[in-house]
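Handout, section B. The chain below has 367 residues.
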Amino acid sequence: MNVEKIFASRAPSRAICVLVLCLLASASLPVQATTLAVLQLPALPTTKAQRAVLLGLARAGERLVAVGERGIVLLSDDAGTSWRQAKVPVSVSLTAVQFVDAEQGWAVGHLGVVLHTQDGGETWQKQLDGERAIALAVQIAERDAQLPGGATHLEQARRMLADGPDKPFLDLYFRDRLHGYVVGAYSQIYRTDDGGRSWQPWMQHLDNPQGLNLYGIRAVGNDLLLVGERGLLLRSTDAGQSFQALESPYEGSFFGLLGTRDGALVAYGLRGNAWWSDDRGDSWRRLHTGTESTLASALELRDGGLLLASQSGEFLFSHDHGRSFDKRQSRSGGTVAAVQQAVDGSLASVGLSGVAADQDPRASGKP
């Protein structure tokens, strides 16, 4: 694995986890042996799970679900006050999680893992891993080698095969219980139309000839948008059949994307950079966040406000479409990788120090 490339281009809150785990694995075991071990070994129960490195957080109905290192998944049914560990069939680090309702959800992570739950996160089943993902990519690339751009995609697929199944997925988007995408390092994108029972490599549908890392995917209205390293912005206006590059407002990496209820877009990334678009990504307005820290998460609050969270634990609130921000340090005082608003209006966050509950009157809409 090219650890240096991923470390240099990814958000520190995620990159630190990638770097540490990859170095530990490569120091003692061949990649293949390590892959087999963590893909077959269930996540071990631990009393220290709440203090583990956690990278993703989602709502499943009224429940909060956090995911992170060594396959740890934590569940909270009391707005983040207490947590318990779920059963997970792998012990690879998980980077992101999404639920489409209170029962059905997916999580993605290292070594090309995609997990699925049908019971609100209590138990999980593996749907995809790096070995299967690469095999699918090579198969499709060889089939389409004679099509325009086919030679490039075949070269990329064969390079992935030579490197091994060590590429992480970093984000996901599901429209409903059947239709979704997972995205990750080296332009990886896979699509499912049957809830993850089968997956299709989708790299050939992207205008990303350099194979740049994909860090975020979201839908706004009828559009699908992707963000990635070096200012990469891609948009699909045809239900994901093709993604065209948009003119980017800056050259740094975007680590995430938020679509608001009224159709606006917020792309965010390195050194406090955040950008707002009211026209589906055709043009962008820079948001003056007042921070130099990398932005790791964004959330539209239930009162319509915007919350940006930085890797240094800053919460940036805006109620004027990002024209001004009110900065506050999270109560945990640690790195924030993801943040969610619980059913009672309070905030919960996860990061390098685990989970944290942050009761905030502004987030809950109270005076």
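Note. The first helix runs from residue 3 to 9. Compare this with the example in section A.
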